[in-house]
Write a structure and sequence with these properties.
Elements (H helix, E strand, L loop, with lengths): L2 E7 L3 H13 L5 E4 L12 H6 L12 H6 L2 E4 L4 E5 L4 E4 L4 E9 L3 E3 L18 H11 L4 E5 L3 H12 L3 E6 L11 H13 L3 E4 L3 E7 L4 E6 L4 E4 L1 E4 L3 E3 L15 E2 L11 E3 L4 E4 L6 E2 L4 H15 L14 E6 L2 E7 L8 E5 L4 E7 L2 E8 L5 H9 L8 H6 L1 H12 L2
Parallel strand pairs: 1-2, 1-6, 2-3, 6-17, 8-9, 8-14, 9-10, 16-18
Antiparallel strand pairs: 4-5, 5-6, 7-15, 11-12, 12-13, 18-19, 20-21, 21-24, 22-23, 23-24
Helix pairs in contact: 1-7, 8-10
Length: 416
């Protein structure tokens, strides 16, 4: 049975940052990174570019084998975690092998959540979460004419754009009243929707799928909506969200709610076991409650904190809480959001539509959210204003009028 000091389960941003952090404090401790994927580490955010053909599958890797050799870390692909015995400190794998560890990081990420739609299990559908998914979707696009996408989140809209640009007739079905509801308010989303409509993408909003049935011997399908409409498709993409990969932890004693529960150092409820990234349910900055925030900056920050704690950093940093940050590029446009950009209750909202679209959200004269479409802003500065809870009372009018300039001036004063 292989035995290592540090065992990292997962190979994306959280695990890679934990590796880097561990090596900062412990250059020699034995280490292994185990992943269910067949490839060297890559970022899920690059997958739309693989689908579009703008990036080749072999050019999107985050690290090469030389990196693992230089960091004395054994990289183990094609090995899915199937069980954890926390008392014996052993991890069971789908290969039949078991590993023993002194300290363990759970960074198994998330997997597509398939909605409980009647007939969904009888039809061929695609998801977009892995490199193989991206390669499969790109291949399927070559022989398709009519595509239906379930879900108008980032994954669904990225894929819809790629398919429309490839010449397919594309329909997107979304249960909410506007696209990207977790990141943007209705007005911002309307600008995104207009761009999609202008490129021939049909959006079915506030629409619920009640059944899917196979047609033409399984080569196509019909998507039935609750209002009686039916959409024909020879390519179906399910992009209705993701859920943390935690089933392999059943019976381990590791506390799991929606994700793996962690404290301010990313420790789980079990001794010498940490979690980070999409799988971790850590503190949300705004509410102070545990939440899932599946974005790269959060994964990197959590991985860094987990790694330093695993390597016994003498001056550990507590996780300050996650703040959602998203940048979305579509059809030559760009939309950005940070914090509680779509909040509506108990807040002050300032909207400017002079050029693009800008929405500032304040509470008690403090910035808590910012969104824009075709009006770039300084994400770093706005993030610091939010995290430091800077009182804008004395300059609120100038901040609302010129948020970037005013924000930079404020932060330069704060950093003196």
């Amino acid at each position: 049975m292989p035995d290592v000091k540090y065992l990292l389960v997962g190979s994306s941003h959280a695990a890679l940052e934990a590796l880097r952090s561990i090596r900062h404090f412990d250059a020699d401790g034995s280490m292994a990174m185990i992943t269910r994927d067949a490839y060297l580490p890559y970022s899920p955010t690059i997958l739309p570019y693989v689908v579009s053909g703008r990036s080749k599958p072999d050019s999107v890797l985050l690290r090469d084998q030389a990196f693992f050799e230089a960091n004395s870390c054994t990289f183990v692909p094609n090995a899915c975690a199937t069980g954890l015995n926390a008392k014996a400190r052993t991890l069971s794998l789908s290969t039949g092998e078991s590993w023993r560890y002194d300290k363990l990081l759970i960074a198994t990420g998330a997997a597509p959540a398939i909605p409980p739609v009647k007939g969904i299990e009888t039809v061929k559908y695609h998801v977009l979460r892995t490199l193989d998914d991206a390669k499969g979707l790109r291949s399927a696009m070559g022989g398709a004419r009519h595509a239906v996408v379930l879900g108008a989140g980032l994954v669904g809209l990225h894929a819809a754009e790629n398919m429309a640009e490839a010449g397919l007739s594309v329909s997107v079905v979304e249960m909410q009243s506007h696209v990207l509801p977790g990141y943007f308010d209705a007005k911002a989303s309307e600008r995104i929707e207009t761009a999609f409509a202008g490129h021939g993408v049909k959006l079915f909003l506030q629409a619920k799928v009640v059944a899917v049935e196979t047609d033409d011997g399984g080569h196509s399908c019909t998507v039935h909506l609750e209002d009686g409409r039916a959409l024909k498709a020879d390519l179906l993409l399910v992009a209705t969200g993701v859920k943390p990969v935690t089933s392999w932890l059943d019976g381990s004693g590791v506390g799991v709610d929606r994700g793996v529960l962690v404290d301010e150092t990313m420790r789980t409820t079990v001794e010498d076991v940490w979690a980070a990234g999409d799988v971790a349910q850590a503190m949300d900055f705004h509410s102070g409650k545990r939440a899932l925030i599946g974005i790269i900056p959060t994964a990197v920050d959590q991985g860094r904190i987990a790694g330093s704690a695993m390597a016994s950093d003498p001056y550990p940093r507590a996780y300050p809480g996650g703040i959602p940050v998203n940048t979305y590029r579509f059809f030559g446009h760009v939309a950005l959001s940070i914090g509680q950009a779509a909040a509506t209750e108990g807040v002050e909202v300032a909207i400017n539509e002079t050029d693009g679209y800008r929405r500032l959200v304040l509470c008690d004269n403090r910035l808590i959210g910012y969104a824009s479409v075709d009006e770039p802003f300084d994400v770093g500065i706005m993030g610091e204003l939010i995290r430091r809870k800077v009182d804008l009372g004395q300059c609120k009018d100038s901040f609302i009028a010129k948020p970037v300039e005013t924000g930079r001036r404020l932060m330069s004063e704060q950093w003196r």
